[in-house]
Design brief:
mainly alpha; globular; two-stranded parallel ribbon
Length: 346
């Protein structure tokens, strides 16, 4: 008997390398990225590239739901890829791309629009918020933003999507659409699961700890950019709000200090209680100097690598172009199945 043909499915499977689950995440290029973007997303990308089959990129189609300066949007789109690479994500380990360079995203979004409920979209918390903030530009894309996000995720048969608290509703909508399509047309999409970091902490404004750190804050001392120079980082930390209690502890009543302790814990990769134990006999100024030094130590190599990449954009452009081609090969397979099932000619 031919021993090759006599192999069982179990032995055949044992000889093949197990497929890794797919992880997916995009970052909007709506402004210069802050250390909140680094700690909340990019830092985790570096770890995920060794655990998952990763698709990371730039959500520039999402960015145009609000008015953009074209030249700035093009520049920032490349910058996001540069930040991801500078932080340590390797193009040979993860697919890095810019959303608009993979037209399948917009194509699938149109199909998913046909099974999306207007009522459900109108009830989205983020749509309500943006409708108030951008009343002068209340466009249809703001309403269908979650549909495009669902298309982004489902195109790559994503198993996990790292999400923060403000994105959980959108991921639930994506899961609803995947299950609806699978039920109506037959199994097609992987239903994604949220990937949450139990140790992750929202990084708040250095001037108003009740608000999330945002690059759109009118006060530049409220946030730290990834590309801020060391002197700027130290200055902003020194000016960060704390309180008048002068008692080093971790509690909501001291929200400013609590935010800075969270920052230190995130960069030191320890628990807030460890930070309190280390600095419990220190004054705020001493702690702030230590925090500023720690952030500079961690961010300066990334900043220097970022500046090198952006000084000659050819490498980043090549990474984005190659990543888009790789992403498109995967996306096209999914879209072809979708078109066939709904009856669209290709």
């Amino acid at each position: 008997m031919d021993q090759t043909k006599a192999q069982t499915p179990q032995t055949q499977g044992a000889e093949e390398a197990p497929k890794r689950k797919v992880a997916f995440s995009l970052i909007q290029p709506s402004g210069d990225l802050t250390i909140g973007n680094y700690l909340g997303a990019i830092k985790s990308f570096v770890k995920m590239q060794d655990q998952y089959d990763c698709f990371f990129g730039v959500a520039n189609l999402h960015a145009i739901t609000v008015t953009q300066v074209a030249a700035d949007l093009r520049r920032r789109s490349l910058e996001v890829i540069a930040y991801i690479v500078a932080a340590g994500v390797k193009p040979e380990k993860a697919t890095l791309f810019i959303q608009s360079q993979v037209p399948e995203h917009a194509e699938l979004a149109w199909v998913l629009n046909s099974i999306s409920s207007i009522g459900q979209l109108q009830r989205m918390t983020q749509f309500k918020d943006k409708a108030q903030k951008h009343a002068d530009n209340l466009n249809a894309a703001l309403l269908t933003y979650p549909v495009l996000m669902a298309a982004d995720i489902l195109l790559y048969q994503s198993h996990v999507v790292p999400v923060g608290a403000d994105q959980k509703q959108h991921l639930e909508f994506t899961r609803d659409l995947a299950e609806r399509f699978n039920s109506r047309y037959s199994p097609t999409f992987t239903v994604p699961e949220p990937l949450t970091d139990e140790n992750a902490t929202r990084i708040m404004s250095l001037k108003d700890p009740s608000s999330k750190m945002s690059k759109s804050d009118p006060d530049e001392n409220a946030y730290i950019l990834i590309k801020d120079e060391p002197a700027a980082i130290r200055r902003k930390i020194a000016r960060a709000v704390t309180d008048s209690e002068a008692h080093f502890c971790y509690r909501p009543e001291q929200a400013g200090l609590m935010n800075l302790i969270n920052l230190y814990a995130a960069y030191a990769e320890c628990a807030p209680k460890d930070v309190v134990e280390r600095f419990h006999d220190s004054d705020y100024a001493t702690f702030k100097r230590a925090l500023g030094d720690l952030i500079v130590e961690k961010m300066e190599p990334i900043r220097q690598r970022f500046l090198t990449l952006m000084a000659d954009k050819k490498e980043i452009e090549a990474i984005s172009r190659d990543g888009a081609l790789a992403a498109q090969r995967v996306a096209r397979r999914t879209l072809s199945k979708v078109y066939r099932k709904v009856g669209l000619l290709q």
